[in-house]
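[Meeting: bench + compute handoff]

Bench side (C.D.) handed over the final construct sequence. Compute side (W.E.) agreed to return the predicted structure before the next meeting so the bench team could plan truncations. Sequence as handed over:
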Amino acid sequence: MRIVYLHLPRFPLQRRIWETPSLHAAPVVLWEEARGQKRVAFASAAAARAGCAPGLTVTAAAALAPGLQAFPLDPKAEEVALGSLGEALLAVAPGFQRAGLEGLWLDGSAAALSGGERGLCARAEEIARGHGYRGRAVVAPDLFTARAVARHGPPGGEPVVARQESAARLQGLPLRVLAEEAPHAAQALGTLGLSTLGEVAALPPGAVVARLGAEGLRAQRLCRGEDGALFVPAELPEVLEEALSLDWPADSTEPLLFGLKTLFDRLCARLSGRGKAAVRLQLWLALDPRGEKGLPLLLARPSAQPRLLLDLAKHRLADLTLESPVGGLRVKVEESCEDRGRQMALGDSRRQDEALEVVLSRLQSALGEEALFSGEVLRSHRPESAYRRGAFHPPRLSAGELGDSGARLFHDHRPRKVAAEDAERPEPGVGLSAADRPPRLFTKPCSLDAEVGASGELRAARLLGKRRRATAVAGPERLCGEWWEREAYRRDYYRVHFEGVGPVWVFRDAEDGRFYLQGMFD
């Protein structure tokens, strides 16, 4: 198995500076408590130049670097952030595994999809840069070799370690590389005067076991590129959520949109890595000093495009009035679905399509989910049961008036089971043109006070409080069925043009002989 290691030097600091741009080029340290003292865990380049190093107390670091800004290290938050980046990397790798707080191991078995192993390393680094992180990727046969070469190898070196080259690529690396995996053995080997991994690999195995035991033997195998550790993919969280604390409380939309762009970019990268698209999101604004405001973001069509989400959020924030400034942002995906993609026609414009989605999503978010709906064709010949009101989705681009063999007018992203008896029914509209059905059907047919001629033809009816003469009649078209149910039907349908009303769809029920109004064409 081929393993990719993406090294993200001082990842917690990179994340802190990316989310707080004012810290750029400033002396910054992250500290953690050890034995009752605050000690430096990570130091920025400016702080390191001033002499701040990991293990130093924060008090001593502040004396070395005037204006030093110190923040507590939150390992759990950093692990979540690493996992978020790992999910984005699922677009190029089947799985990822966290490696401390400064890197990720990736499954390199899908390198062919990125143009080879060098292409995979380049894509991993590119995705990391898109999230605001600087990193270096190396692919090797085992976990230890990949991490050691990425962390301590020469800058700009070859990113691919061949299967038989592990020992050769490791031999020139310093002994401190071994301290991360076998600290006691590394310390003991250092006291013997050894300084490189190659010198450890050249020792007689028997002598190493006699002096250092099993840990020494394992350390020597690592130096020879014989790491037997297994790659264990991380479990993906069920909830997709991203949060960001603002540098200072914001009372205008500009800093909010800047922060939301970062959140949506990361969230959509995670969705794309999973092959998902968002359907419904929830945006929370953390108010300063306390309180929270929630805003639902409803999409007319599932999407993983950050530009669309940002436009929708911008619209929701434009008319929003808050009592307090905003100190933080949080976005959560409430509902998602499989992202199957969509093939556009040659004459379609992506910008026009995105603009339509923004308008529809704005309507849904502003007026509610039920305000925007469409009719969906169902498997029934009974007209009032042949469609239902559902969530609106733009029409699928397909040939034919009804598309998909007339089974459905609109694409529904949610999977739906079909009952066995429904599966045996014929498709609606078989043998008929879509023009023979009115676009407006009544939920329940309305009884007509009709005037019938001697031969049974419809001559006039009372509509809208007046007698309306039938100027044209086309039909009949007989529809019958569902004899196995309690409410079987047998009807003769006519397309009738009434004076002062226009074309309507009426039928004569064979049970009672009366005429009923079913729908209107205009």
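W.E. noted at the follow-up: The CA atoms of residues 186 and 393 lie 62 Å apart. C.D. will use this when planning the next construct.
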